[in-house]
């Protein structure tokens, strides 16, 4: 099923997960699949699976994991494809595998620039990959977008023009980069409206459990951290359990506000963490 059809019943709640690292120990893999059981039991509308996110080489498990989720839980999947890692012929071969496995959805990305800066693939921008996928078959294509503006864009106007080109190339739904200030998302939706971007835009929400990790991600991705969020992290940085609980509470607060505003959907960056994801889903169960 094409997951764009999920928006017939809004709001759409979906998850992002990471595949285990290729060199993960047996114990870590077992833990991963136990966690996946819990996440799947929360019945998200679909699960998206990252591909080497963060510029790492953690790329081998995406397709296998998607097939496993679809077969084992009957949940729709969205493999991420970062174009900078793919040649044209590699994309063609990958799409064939998706067709064979009845996977109809793709999150088409440019990809995080690799640490050594060397781009191996044929696609400079996500929109180039979108056009290539469109030529090759009947896929439902998702794209990424940036309420705090993509860090490489000159400004928010240029970024939204580029986003319009990507949507026009064939993207039918968008997922935002994580953000911690809902007003930035609402202002971004206004810019989308002005640019005639009229596909559903799911809000990407990440519950924060680790201060160092989020500060690194924020710096890398140009995500603005509001004062009240920084205060919260500074206060609980030495107490991991309190940080986890405060991070979940902050995410719930954001989601309640988004749902009250009639958001198209929320894509939870689960970081494969079942405890926090379960807590968030429990808290919003009656609001959907
Ligand atoms: P693009 O849409 O190509 O945009 C990148 C930059 O180029 C922007 O500044 C844009 O304004 C500009 N631009 C776009 N088109 C043009 C043009 N025609 N001319 C000039 N400038 C242009 N990375 C991974 O490696 N693996 C993952 O699994 C992964 N998952 C992600 C999931 C989500 C929901 C999000 C939000 C990001 C994810 N990323 C992942 C990170 C993503 O690859 C990076 O944010 C990357 O820097 C940009 O990707 P994009 O697809 O948005 O690129």
TrEMBL record:
Gene3D superfamilies: 3.20.20.220. One of its GO terms (biological process) is tetrahydrofolate interconversion. Its EC number is 1.5.1.54. It catalyses: (6S)-5-methyl-5,6,7,8-tetrahydrofolate + NAD(+) = (6R)-5,10-methylene-5,6,7,8-tetrahydrofolate + NADH + H(+). InterPro entries: FAD-linked_oxidoreductase-like, Mehydrof_redctse-like, MTHF_reductase_bac. It holds the Pfam family MTHFR. It comes from the Bacteria. It is an enzyme of class 1 (oxidoreductase). The keyword Amino-acid biosynthesis applies. Keywords: Amino-acid biosynthesis, FAD, Flavoprotein, Methionine biosynthesis, NAD, Oxidoreductase. The keyword Oxidoreductase applies. CDD domains: MTHFR (cd00537). Its cofactor is FAD. GO terms for cellular component: cytosol. Pathway: Amino-acid biosynthesis; L-methionine biosynthesis via de novo pathway; One-carbon metabolism; tetrahydrofolate interconversion. GO terms for molecular function: FAD binding; methylenetetrahydrofolate reductase (NADH) activity. NCBIfam families: fadh2 (TIGR00676). Belongs to the methylenetetrahydrofolate reductase family. PANTHER family: METHYLENETETRAHYDROFOLATE REDUCTASE, METHYLENETETRAHYDROFOLATE REDUCTASE (NADPH). This is Methylenetetrahydrofolate reductase. It comes from Secundilactobacillus silagei JCM 19001.
């Amino acid at each position: 099923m094409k997951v764009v059809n999920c928006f017939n019943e809004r709001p759409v709640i979906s998850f992002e997960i990471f595949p285990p690292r290729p060199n993960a120990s047996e114990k870590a893999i077992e833990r991963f699949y136990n966690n996946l059981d819990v996440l799947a039991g929360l019945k998200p509308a679909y699960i998206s699976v990252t591909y080497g996110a963060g510029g790492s080489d953690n790329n081998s498990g995406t397709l296998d994991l998607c097939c496993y989720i679809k077969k084992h839980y009957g949940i729709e999947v969205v493999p991420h494809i970062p174009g900078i890692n793919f040649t044209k012929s590699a994309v063609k071969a990958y799409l064939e595998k998706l067709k064979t496995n009845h996977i109809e959805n793709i999150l088409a990305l440019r990809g995080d620039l690799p640490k050594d800066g060397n781009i191996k693939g044929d696609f400079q921008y996500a929109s180039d990959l979108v056009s290539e996928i469109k030529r090759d078959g009947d896929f439902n294509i998702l794209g990424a977008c940036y309420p705090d503006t993509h860090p490489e864009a000159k400004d928010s106007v240029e970024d939204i023009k580029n986003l319009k080109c990507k949507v026009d190339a064939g993207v039918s739904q968008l997922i935002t980069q994580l953000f911690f200030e809902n007003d930035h998302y609402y202002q971004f939706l206004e810019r989308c409206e002005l640019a005639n971007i009229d596909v559903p835009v799911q809000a990407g929400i990440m519950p924060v459990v680790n201060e160092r990790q989020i500060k690194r991600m924020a710096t890398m991705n140009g995500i603005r951290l509001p004062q009240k969020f920084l205060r919260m992290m500074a206060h609980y940085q030495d107490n991991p359990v309190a940080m986890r609980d405060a991070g979940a509470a902050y995410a719930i607060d954001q989601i309640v506000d988004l749902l009250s505003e009639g958001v198209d959907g929320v894509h939870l960056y689960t970081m494969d963490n079942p405890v926090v994801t379960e807590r968030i889903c429990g808290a919003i169960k009656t609001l959907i």
